[in-house]
Amino acid sequence: MKQSIISTALFIQDILPALLRASGVTVKLTLYSIILGIVIGTGIALMRISRNKVLSGLGTAYVTVLRGTPLMVQILIVYFALPQLGLRLDKFSSAVVALGINASAYIAEIIRAAIESIDPGQMEAARSLGMSYGLAMRRIIIPQTYRRLLPPLGNEFIAMLKDTSLIAFIGGEELTRAGQHIISATFRPWPVYITVAAIYLCMTALFSLFVQLGERKLLQ
Amino acid sequence: MREIPMVELRGVCKSFGNLQVLKDINLRVAKGEVVSIIGPSGSGKSTLLRCVNYLERPDSGTVSIAGNPVPEDENALNKARAKVGMVFQHFNLFPHMTALENVMEGPVQVKKMPKHEAKELALSLLSKVGLADKADAYPRRLSGGQKQRVAIARALAMQPDVMLFDEATSALDPELIGEVLQVMRDLAAEGMTMLVVTHEIGFAREVSDRIVVLADGQIVEEGRPEKLLSAPKHQRTREFLAKILPARA
Hints:
Radius of gyration of chain B: 18 Å
Mean pLDDT of chain A: 94
Number of strands of chain A: 0
Strand order of the largest sheet of chain B: 6-7-8-3-9-10
Oligomer: heterodimer
Number of helices of chain B: 9
Strand content of chain B: 15-25%
Distance between the termini of chain B: 46 Å
Mean pLDDT of chain B: 93
Largest interface: A-B, 18 and 27 residues
């Protein structure tokens, strides 16, 4: 018994460097995707609240489609189906595009809700000073949403970090895929998957802590 | 020759759904004149005021500021709004900015005034409303009366031709109303053109050149305060005054 624990510990020690290296890819994927998601999501949110019916309709359709289809299918479409239309991206870019676009739909809803939670009197006060709608949004409304955005965006980041594991299905060399490689060479799924899960947990816990610190800072 | 009125509403109508809030409003406010608008709640006072700077677009009729019709075009409308200051019942200060930044925001962002110049202007306006020492305070650290005075300074920073006050003291604790009214009184004395929606009959009597009584979306009576308040002609005015003025012996 004692011996098997020691041998498992040694085994984990052996595989840890490869898994940690792959975790770097996971973090990078998450960061790029969340940034893409925030950029696109902000645009979609502004479309959704626009008085222009065509714009808001398009925004709604975008959110409906992306939230209504599985992320897994979206990843497969970007990596395997888009090349048939002549758009070929490498695995990492495909992953960022698929994850980022998927997240943008959720982030758009987060941002829209935050903007709509701001007292309409703020927009009126800004407009009464002669500000255009765009300037009022940029100077007055959006800055007030930051504090309300941080917690849901933190959740989104954590969900995204875990969702990157789906990239293993298109052969992206992130944490889960690295684990699978080790298993196919060693036939020891138990310690490998537990280690993989533990690394995900460490990363999400660490990030939750950052979000909490950030919130406290914004509350001051 | 008649002087061009600073504010002129001609045949202004406004409905929300089936509810007609303003019915053919005609009103002229001369330069330097202070006009108080009183009337029962729901009579359309706030809507009337909000039509002056097109926060509400009238369904029909025209609004002119200093002889220029308020334009439909967005860019021109923004410019026109910059010349009309507005003070709200709930202050609507920008909570993420200090008092000073609130006052500087309009001149810097809309008028493109250099920051140091805007700061000087904002500081002088804050001291004018008695809040020079609160320049660096965020709105949440200010009392209601202080917030409203900052809001007045913010509106004045755009150097408006007209100031609109939409129940500026209605959300204040009774002991804080006086300080805001004092600032408004000073403004009136300086010759600012003011349109004031208010429930403060005492203030309306003392400061305004003219009182307009609105009921059911129509101007039912207007006239000099002392005359209108002591000898109201219209039944609706009498009813309204009877409700808000303490019974006289």
